[in-house]
Amino acid sequence: MHSKSPRNVVVVGGGIAGALLAKNLQDHAHVTLIDPKEYFEIIWASLRSMVDLSFAERSLVNYSDFLSQVKLINSYATHITESEVLTARGDHVPYDYLVIATGHIYSDPVTRTEGLSKYQEELNKIKSSSSIMIIGGGPSGVELAEGVYQTSGGETIVADQYFSCTGSQSGSSWLKDTILMDNLDMKGKLVVDKHLRVEGHRSIFAIGDITNLPELKQGYLAMRHAELTAKNLRLLLGGGSEEKMTVYKPGRPIAFVSLGKKDAVAEINGFTMSGCFPGLIKSGDLFVGKTRKTYGLNS
Question: What transmembrane ranges does the database entry give (predicted)?
């Protein structure tokens, strides 16, 4: 007699990692995606979207456009047990395998239309402001500054508008009173093993920025997490041995910071370069076309 393979996969969080994993599994299991939004966003294009609405049009995509076989639950996950996920709207969603991809906390609109309107409002604010303050000098702050202004040598004290680019809170607070409470490190990240499973939980995986992996929190690495986890889940769903699961190797430090539409700064394995060459790699399209193809969309 053959045992029945687990077929219910629940993905919590529909960002870069969660949405790609759901796409790659939708032909292999009954996949449920839990996310309060109705759309997916190519998040690294968000700064360009604030000053160029054509990027917003391409980087905000309804889940239904590429997750045709996935059940969508537009709500927040509030609790998990060994067998189900509970949501804010009262759902009890059973799972055989659970993937947590809640990354960081953002105050995003619920619908794509509202998301596009938000970018239009931000653009209007930028255009109507004579001075803008950007708090935070990391990659996000630098890319936004390049998009909204030509800098001078003086300092700005008074600003009509300000934008905070100081990072966001880890999206793990909802796990603090669950079966995974002891799997959170001091920074609120989930401790995972070499297969991206939450340590001590054979049926629960974590991918994307919520993991404690010793690597930069970047979109292309979150996509690697999703692809590897989808591969391992396809193996398990098909009755394969855990011993054959693929091991994840943390990514090397690679970073590109766009300086407008033509230039960029890149750091690869400790080597830094700037100008039009790294700009050719990232700045023109910000990898939006390539990313859309990965998710099964027209570039």
Answer: none
Q: What is the DSSP string of 2-18?
A: PPPPP-EEEEE--SHHH
Domain total of the chain: 1
If we measure between CA atoms, which residue out of 181, 206, 175 comes closest to residue 192?
Answer: 206
Contact 27, 70 (CB under 8 A): no
Phi, psi of 148 (to 5 degrees): -105, -15
Kindly state whether residue 276 falls inside one of the protein's structural domains.
Answer: no
Residue-wise pLDDT tens digits, 74-100: 999 999 999 999 999 999 999 999 999
Q: Would you say residue 129 lies in a domain?
A: no
Nearest partner of 13 among 61, 91, 71, 75, judged by Cα: 75
- Please choose, from the candidates 152, 164, 142, the residue with its C-alpha nearest in 3D space to the C-alpha of residue 258: 142
CATH number at residue 188: 3.50.50.60
State the burial class of residue 44 (Cβ atoms within 10 Å of its Cβ: 0-12, 13-18, 19+): buried
- Region 117-137 average pLDDT: 77
Selection from 21, 180, 31, 35 nearest residue 95 by Cα = 31
Residue 224: phi, psi to the nearest 5? -65, -40
What does residue 182 show for φ and ψ, rounded to 5 degrees? Answer: -85, 0
Can you tell me the distance from the alpha carbon of 112 to that of 209, in angstroms, rounded to the nearest whole number?
Answer: 23
pLDDT in tens, 235-266: 999 999 999 999 999 988 777 676 767 777 77
The domain of 89 spans 1-37+74-106+168-249
CA 187 – CA 100 distance, rounded (Å): 16
Q: Which residue did the predictor score with more confidence, 266 or 171?
A: 171
pLDDT at 120: 96
